[in-house]
Amino acid sequence: MSKKENSLKILKSIKSAKKYLMELDKPKVLIPTMGALHDGHLSLIEIAKKLNIHTIVSIFINPIQFNDKKDLEKYPRTLIQDIQKLKALNVDTLFAPNVENIYDKNFQTSISVKNLQKNLCGTNRPGHFDGMATIVLKLFNIIKPDYAIFGKKDFQQLEIIKRMCLDLNLNIKIIEGKIIREKSGLAMSSRNSLLTKNNLILAPKIYEGLKLVKKSFTSSNKFESQSVIKKLRDFYLKNGLKKIDYIEIVDKETLVKTKKIKKGDTIAVAIKLGKIRLIDNLQF
Ligand code: PAF
Predict the structure, then answer these.
(1) In terms of pTM, does the model score above 0.90?
(2) Residue 1: pLDDT over 60
(3) Distance from CA of residue 281 to its chain's centroid?
(4) Does the Cβ of 130 fall within 6 Å of ligand 1?
């Protein structure tokens, strides 16, 4: 291991993070994660490195954004491998606190970005986005980054964070990272590692379907959302993707469902394969 690879500073508590980062007194970019780092995360780190400022990755599996206890229990935990990856990419600092440190026993505050969570994942994951926004704001307050980077696979999360920053006058520039895909087209996700062999074969159909309806949108000018949604639903059912949580077409900023598709709208899906729920999206 090279000398540079050894220089990752690991901070495990709010107190040590605040002290270290205050004394450091440098511009900072934060990439919040829940660990189980894959190439999607690594692409966000590459964006951060190009800013040439202090790069911090946080790893914290945030219990209050899991509306399903079993999902939280089985979420992949790979801290040792994650640290190796961060060292190899010369990340400056890892913030990896434990749950008790982040949430004291009387914790009772919640951030709610109301309208942007009405559709898509907000419908079947009650409390998820409040929990997510709450931890992101806490991380922003602890780390005080100048920039923060989030991937577009979770595009509803990204819009909620952008809105929260505007509404609460946070002086943080949010940078968007594009969706990184496996060769098969499957969007990279920490949850992919939990898929069975059979479901790993089925999963790329999620993106295949999105591409198919996008193609027909441009070539045949079918602007009705409902007909596109039906076409995609039929494609998924025919290809063995039976547990469709939602297929929605929304305005990319307001996340309100669109009746007639216009350029820039986003088609987003959530599908369960076995017990694993995957999401993906594509912009028209
Ligand atoms: O996208 C994630 O991994 C999480 O939702 C985040 C932003 C780290 C908050 O826990």
Answers:
(1) yes
(2) no
(3) 12
(4) no
Strands of the sheet containing 173-177, edge to edge, are: 9-11, 93-95, 54-59, 28-33, 147-151, 173-177
Which of 7-21, 162-176, 215-229 shows the lowest mean pLDDT across its residues?
215-229
Question: Which of 45, 129, 135, 149, when mutated, tests ligand 1's pocket best, judged by the most ligand atoms within 8 Å of its CB?
Answer: 135
Q: What is the pLDDT of residue 16?
A: 98
Q: Is the CB of 32 under 6 A from ligand 1?
A: yes
Q: Where are the domains of the chain?
A: 4-177, 190-283
Nearest protein CA to atom 8 of ligand 1, as residue: 33
| Position in ligand 1 atom list of the atom nearest CA 32 | 8
Residue 249 in contact with ligand 1 by CB distance below 6 A? no
- Rounded to whole angstroms, the Cα distance separating 169 from 180 reads 30
Q: Is 128 a catalytic residue?
A: no
User: Which alpha helices (H) appear in the chain, and where do they start and end?
Assistant: 14-24, 39-51, 69-74, 79-88, 99-102, 121-124, 128-143, 155-167, 197-202, 205-220, 225-238
Kindly state if the Cβ of 190 falls inside 6 Å of ligand 1.
no
- Tens of pLDDT, residue by residue over 222-254, are 689 999 999 999 999 999 999 999 999 999 999
- Mean pLDDT confidence for 41-62: 98
* Per-residue tokens: 221: 């000018």
> Does domain 190-283 sit in CATH 3.40.630.30?
no
> According to the CATH classification, is domain 4-177 in 1.20.1730.10?
no
Query: Quick one: pLDDT at residue 32?
Result: 98
Q: Is the pLDDT of residue 3 over 60?
A: no
